Amino acid sequence: MNAIDINTERLLTIVRVLAAELKPGAGNFSALGFDHRLERDFGLDSLARVELLARIDRELGAKLGEAAFAAETPADLLRLIGDATLYVPATSAVPPASALADFVPPPDDLATLTEVLDWHVRHQPGRIHIHLLGEAGQDDPVNYARLAQAARAVAAGLLARGAPPGSRVALMLPTGLDFFAAFYGALYAGCVPVPLYPPARPAQLEEHLRRIAGILANAGALWLVADPRARAFAQALSGKCPTLAGIVTVAELTTPPVAAPLPALVAGDLAFIQYTSGSTGDPKGVALTHANLLANVSALRLAARATPADVFVSWLPLYHDMGLIGAGIGSMVVGFPLVLMSPLAFLARPVRWLEAISRHRGTLSAAPNFAYEICANKLTDGELAGIDLSCWRMACNGAEAVSPVTLERFAARLAPVGLRREALAPVYGLAECSVGLAFPPPGRGPRIDRVARRALADEGLAQPVGDDQPDAQAVPGCGHALPGHGIRIVDAAGRELPERRVGRIQFRGPSATAGYFENPVATAKLFDGDWLNTGDLGYLADGELFVTGREKDIIIRGGHNIHPQELEEAVGRVSGVRAGNVVVFPATDPGAGTERLVVLAEARTMDADAQQRIRAEVERLAVDLTGLPADDVVLAPPGTVLKTSSGKLRRAACRTAYERGELLHRPRSPRLQALRLLLDAARARLRAALRGAAGGLWGLWAWTVFALLAPPFWLLIALAPTLALRRAAARAGARLALAAGGILPRVTGLENLPDGGPAVVVVNHASYLDGMALTAALPARFAYVAKQELLDHPLSATPLKRLDSAFVERFETVRGVEDTQSLEARVCAGDSLIFFAEGTFRDAPGLLPFRMGAFLAAARAGVPVVPVTLSGTRALLPGRRRWPRHGPLAVTIHAPLVPAGTDWHAALALRDAARAAILAQLGEPDAG
Predict the structure, then answer these.
(1) At 382, is the secondary structure helix, strand, or coil?
(2) How far apart are CA 553 and CA 584, in angstroms?
(3) pTM of the predicted model as reported, rounded to 2 decimal places
């Protein structure tokens, strides 16, 4: 037997074994041979190919590149094995530190993406914008001048072809300079680019174009910029997309830039239309303006604390919002270099991603959860040798459900090569918000909330439990809303829910789309007043977002969005399947770090041969309609598919039954099923009604307590003869009122208050309840510093003056200086003062900048500053609302800070140290 025969047999064994592992009992893979298709026959999707290439490398010693993803059969792979060459990473291409010396960041007032690119060309044309990495690791640097020249040449070509302003230009191009030239070229020409995902294999081109025809028609595309091979199908596409003038390549579009001025763009113009990768049956194109994109990137820059000194390494596809906006446009706006490789380069050899981070000293990178799972499980010690990830400061995990198990696996696996767990950052975003919506503080590391599984599933209550509880469910936190954006949780009726209640996630902000392109019906469903529906479910805790599932029926698998309805309808037409009794749903796959695609169909026959035929046809349909094979095809007897009383498919219930192993249990009689459904619905409604009633009753009780206690204690404070008695009365009243409501704050750190002598206490401000909570928690020897406006209201002015409060003017500069001097005099005289250092509060979580008055007074008087963190009042009485919600309160008193001098710099040091202590304890984002 010669070497080629040995490789053939070993390769077939590797493929067959992997197929059998993925679908045990699903078929006789040993009967499949050299010319059978890897996807349709063996069922190997792109993620399975990652494992396949790893095994070929390990067992055959062949390191296959991107071309392996175009292979249709094992025979194609064998030819590639014969041509395989050793992959040798390129030498370091890290730009010298001096490269930043002359860099000038673009100003914030630029209104469009083309203005940003033109600004770079005027000020730093030779600075590298993108490092394009080839398959062997070679670097093709693209500076701003080169990109602008290529883009303007494409713009000239579009204008020469008569493309009017606002016309849509679809881009179906792989990662490379051509994509960026076409994208920015369309913008320069006043057109609207529409990025589309290219086919993974040339052999799929016809099938792929058929699949995206609906997107082209919905976008009303005038031109499709693509591979020359796509031109053969121009006539067929024109029949489905009447607006399509033709298919062109970048080379054909490129003409010398014309001297005529290009169309003028404004911030409100459409920048591009983002179609999700699975939206082929009912296309929904998210329309994003230049203002949306620039607002989102600016907010992300603040949240990630990104600077031009960062380096972003990405393999994310450019048709995906995280790759195009987060990496591509983000690098343009912020000014950090982008190190970019093809998605196929990552899938062929995942270690290339980490090699690029190590070699280019990448500080920022992002990927879906499945990529982190691949790296955690597939990389060998040999592949990791020589890699140094100590530079990686933020590893964003988003675009699909984040697995806490994956986070821990990834952190543990790569800790030996320098990765810090604190770099891992689960994030949340969606195309309707440009790309990002929630972001955790950099350097914090993952926050995992462990809650009671049954309470979460049955009652929608995120009830914290200990790590050792067997029923604990781990839910990763995705951070707080980006600066300038808001997140809320609402019930089915649109009523806002309190913290730790699961509901629909809604958002608003300057990054939000105005709607779906040419789809008013979908747009109407997107909006709830000025809030937008994400289609996801989750809860807030301490203002941080925790995502628990999806309200919408999209399946996210390996970075692809799959809409189940089209596949359900097609499977329902298969002979032997009961039409209308097919459900497609995702199932959790913790081993792969992504979701499994499950097709459940009721069959008319249980004959083994007939079921084998049905299963093969379903597998074919899955590949044809979604581009991915199903992970499991379940053929079940009639009555298995769960439905509502009105006949709607209950996908979530089918998923739950599947994951619990209860799907194929003998069904109860229809009468018992109906009774069980009625009882479950009644219990759910009763629990919801009891929760609502309990919340309403508690709010009523809280107001009743306040109404009963406020008048007598107001009189005590007003009439008591001494200041000590008045302050004691205020403390007693506050403690009694909070205790009666069951919300007396938990106080820690009282020992940190100085025993004798004056002190300045600085506290965060979140609610009208802050003063009452502090009065109840602290000893009765402190005076509040209040805003001058409170003197205009007799009900507040009288007790505040009787309690010897100090008042400051917030709006008149001269008066404000005078007030600060009087505060300093009081501290020097021995008074201890309480400052709400933010000066005001707002609805959204986040610690605002601190005013300097407290710290100047403390520094000049030489007294300590005591930081105090107040937690829970924002959730209990949010913003300007009047109806409270029950919740825990906590007061944490930090160690005192002693001023190092009496000047401005000493006061600044006090402010920064106090704010850092409060921010670390508060758990809210830094809004400063």
Answers:
(1) helix
(2) 9
(3) 0.72
